[in-house]
Amino acid sequence: MAPQKSYSLKDVQAHNSDASCWVIHDNKVFDMTSFVQDHPGGEEYILDHAGQDITELMKDELSHTHSEGAYEMMDDFLIGSLVDQDITPTGLHKRLNATTSSPPIPIQSASSTSTKDEDYLKPTDLVADKKTKFLDLSQPLLWQLWNSDFSKAFYLEQVHIPRHLSGPARIFGSPYLEVFTKTPWYVIPIFWLPIIAYNAYQSLETGLAPDQLAAYFFSGMVIWTLAEYVIHRFLFHLDDLLPDQTFWLVAHFLLHGIHHYLPMDRLRLVMPPALAVALALPLNKLGHSLFAAPQAYAVMSGAFFGYVLYDMTHYYLHHAKVFKIHFREMKTYHLAHHYKNFEGGYGITSKVWDRIFNTELKL
């Protein structure tokens, strides 16, 4: 391992923007620039303290809490330590904040995690995971899980502790199989928009007028929002009813568990078309059994379009600098589902169904 560099307070304070965002924690220096947009509490919580010491802020019991996995993530951004003359046991945070006019805004709390170096300065991909006796992120994951003897309780505990890697994890050892596990976001509209157009065209060909198509199309989009909630809550999070057998743990991991385990993996975020088609076929059959053919084509066209908006929104919330109106709130809300409480907050595009079914996260 290369020796760490040393930085002065002035060095750190110079990196105080979204273009270059450094922070100090326990006299260690972290370059958080690449993580600013992905911060679960919103980018403003980091940027308000860019170039500052956040040690005391992260101890604040009144602020947002971090999981142990979130602390382990920090090591991915460790770039060095403070020079000796700038290190102080307790007063550094106060001195730094005295140089800025903005009042301190709490970022996250370490209420359940010690701030000692050995507790959080562990490489996420090698040391930390090996110590939990879960999956080694430096090796293909599926084979490890398939050959494991994890209990359901242990698996569910570990898979809901978020990890962070600088690149995509490996699912298969074979590069030929591995390519099918990665789905860039733009694959979704490329794959689904022709299917949407075909269904809309068929609805017109089988007798619907354009205004009727528009009405049923919109109805399909509304129906999708409920399907989005039901699938996320009762299929992706079928934790209580999950059989305590390796086969079902692997199925859970491939379906949704990997997204909670590695929530910032850009290539494992949107749904692979093969899996989406497997879920869409029974829904399409249901639609055609409930409606006559012209209406069914129009409704399913709208539902599929709603799905595309859902997956694009999902990616946008995880990896973009979002608009303040609606999307900033939904980004904080959805990432709270990952980093605070996965047993609520199932809505991605809105909170409507969470409110109706009393699963809304109170932030």
Overall description:
This protein is of the alpha/beta class and 363 residues long. It has 16 helices and seven strands. It has helices spanning 9-13, 43-47, 68-73, 92-97, 117-120, 124-132, 141-146, 152-159, 175-178, 187-205, 210-236, 246-261, 273-290, 293-319, 327-339, 352-356; strands at residues 5-7, 16-17, 20-25, 28-31, 64-65, 78-82, 108-109. The protein has a five-stranded mixed beta sheet. α10 (187-205) runs antiparallel to α14. The radius of gyration is 23 Å and the shape is globular. It starts with a strand and ends in a 7-residue tail after the last helix.
Structure in a nutshell:
Helix content is 49%, strand content 7%.
Question: What is the terminal separation in angstroms?
Answer: 40 Å
Count up the helices.
16
Helix content: 40-55%
Nearest-integer average pLDDT = 83
Approximate shape: globular
Strand content: 5-15%
**Gyration radius from CA atoms, angstroms:** 23 Å
Strands, count: 7
* Helix and strand pattern: EHEEEHEHEHEHHHHHHHHHHHH
* Secondary structure category: alpha/beta
Largest beta sheet: strand ordering: 1-6-4-3-2
Low-confidence stretches: 90-126
Largest sheet features = 5 strands, mixed
Write out key terms for the chains shown.
alpha/beta, five-stranded mixed beta sheet, two-stranded parallel sheet, 16 helices, globular
